[in-house]
Amino acid sequence: GDAGALEAFWVLWVSPLPFVARELMGALVELAVSMRASAWSQMVYHQARPPSVSLR
């Protein structure tokens, strides 16, 4: 009766979730890492270059 339908619904709902969640988390982590890496490299670049030196 209801238990079987609920179980079927649960399986249908939950089984795709881990894959989608992994894909989504992977994309978010990649985005965060790339943004942090670019911001960090810009910061290092600005700190490494003395302000008195001007690029000609």
List the main descriptive attributes of the protein structure presented here.
56 residues, mainly alpha
What is the N-to-C succession of helices and strands?
Answer: HH
Sheet/helix structural class: mainly alpha
Low-confidence stretches: none
Shape: rod-shaped
Distinct helical segment count: 2
What helical percentage do the residues reach? Answer: over 70%
Which percent band covers the strand fraction?
A: under 5%
Query: How would a crystallographer describe the biggest sheet?
Result: none
Write down how many β-strands occur, each being a DSSP E stretch of 2 or more residues.
0
Distance between the termini: 79 Å
| Overall pLDDT score | 83
Overall radius of gyration: 24 Å
Give the topology, please.
Layout lengths: L1 H13 L1 H33 L8
Task: Give an overview of the whole structure.
- The structure is a single chain.
- By secondary structure, the chain is mainly alpha-helical.
- Helices cover 82% and strands 0% of the residues.
- It has helices at 2-14, 16-48.
- The longest helix has 33 residues, at 16-48.
- It starts with a helix and ends in an 8-residue tail after the last helix.
- The mean pLDDT is 83.
Quick rundown:
It contains 2 helices and no strands. With 56 residues, it is mainly α.
